[in-house]
Amino acid sequence: MNATTLSNAVTNDSTVKANTESLLSPRFYKTNYDALDRINVDPVREEWDEMMEAFERDENRDHFRQEVDFENDVKEMSDSLYKEFLDFLISSITAEYSGCVLYQEIRDRSNNPDIKQLMAYMTRDEARHAGFLNKSLNNFGVAVDLGFLKRAKKYKYFKPKYIYYATYLSEKIGYARYITIFRHLERNPDKRFHPIFKWFESWCNDEYRHGEAFALIMKSNPHLLSGLNKLWVRFFLLAVYATMYVRDHTRPELYEALGMDPTEFDLRVFDITSEISKQIFPLTLDVDNPKFKKGLDRLSKINVEIAKTKKQKGMMPFMRRMGLSVLASKEFVKLYFIPVVKNELPDRVTVAPSW
To answer: What average pLDDT does the structure give for the chain?
Structure first.
């Protein structure tokens, strides 16, 4: 299928897909904005001010203003590859725009000058990413109506500490994903079937810096990283890793086209993210434990079976889906109780990307 021949009907389909709720889809969040006003970053003031200066310099400013010539720089795709690639892009747009909406809301409601300044910068970056992706897709007659998405998407309440853990991890794992794909395509340019991959380095450097900011927020509030909160750190690490693994294994043709094995790719991303997260988390998951991969594989297979039941009507498929969901929960619990690797936190939080 040549992407330029798609009808305008796909535009609406893309928006509907972005608005669809599922266990693997990106979500929109709201939080306790008054609690964010009470954040005090003075314990990490030196690193914080250095980071704000980096945000102000905005060294990626010009990278996302370039015009993208998709029509002359995109390879022919099969129908199945195009479907998976479109799913990947829509998911990416939704995740970026979700961050943009949350950060903008915090910026507008906050009375804390440090948080207000940070959220203004992060809103700028996420809006740039989502807009760039959507503008690119619009060249092919495929676009997500971001205004509609903001109004129609269901919002989930997250405590501020959940926002810190989840956002830190999503930004860092986003960096690890994008830089791994970018480096692979540097070595194998013949596998770059779409020009959007050329921007992954600039994109992931923004993601990395966002994660650094949330690391500093957690460092300035050490109770977030001790006691029972270690259990929440462990939960979010596993939730983010498991979601990524299961979702990536629903896109086999995408990774085949890139010349990558999704399992090897995910394990590489886990290694990078785990190494980065040592800057702030007192523990990492033992991703080298054979039980870890086996558990993820079982979750992936269960997800495939659940997807099959959703295409069937009647009570029996429904009951089977409920049973599979219970089985998936049990597998998640097993993964949760695999012993973790303890980590001593460094004195200085911020770390330059080196991957």
So the answer is: 85
CB 313 within 8 A of CB 305: no
Token readout for 180 is: 């791994």
Residue 51 has, within 13 A of its CA and on its CB side, a CA count of: 29
C-alpha distances out from residue 241 to 195, 267, 268, 329, Å: 27, 9, 12, 15
Residue 5's pLDDT band, with cuts at 50, 70 and 90, is very low
Q: How many residues does the chain have?
A: 355
Q: What is the pLDDT of residues 272-293, one digit of tens each?
A: 999 999 999 999 999 999 999 9
Q: What is the maximum alpha-carbon separation in the chain? A: 61
- Residue 152 predicted with pLDDT over 70: no
CB 185 within 8 A of CB 191: yes
Which residues partner with 341 through β-bridges?
Answer: 284
Hey, how many other C-beta atoms are within 10 angstroms of the C-beta on 352? 6
How far is CA 46 from each of CA 38, 58, 164, rounded to the nearest angstrom?
19, 19, 20
**Three state DSSP letters for 227-241:** CCHHHHHHHHHHHHH
For range 112-141, the mean pLDDT: 84
Rg of the chain (C-alpha set): 20
Cα gap 339→151, rounded to integer Å: 42
* Residues 6 or more apart whose Cβ sits within 8 Å of residue 153: 19, 27, 28, 98
Quick one: DSSP state of residue 36?
Answer: H
Contact yes or no for 141/11 (Cβ under 8 A): yes
Do residues 286 and 113 touch, judged by C-beta distance below 8 A?
A: no
Position 216, amino acid: L
- What is the H or E stretch that residue 217 is in? helix 200-219
Please, are residues 252 and 262 in contact by the beta-carbon 8 Å criterion? yes
Please name which of 182, 197, 12, 187 lies closest in space to residue 89, comparing C-alpha atoms.
197
Q: Token match 């791994």: residue? A: 180
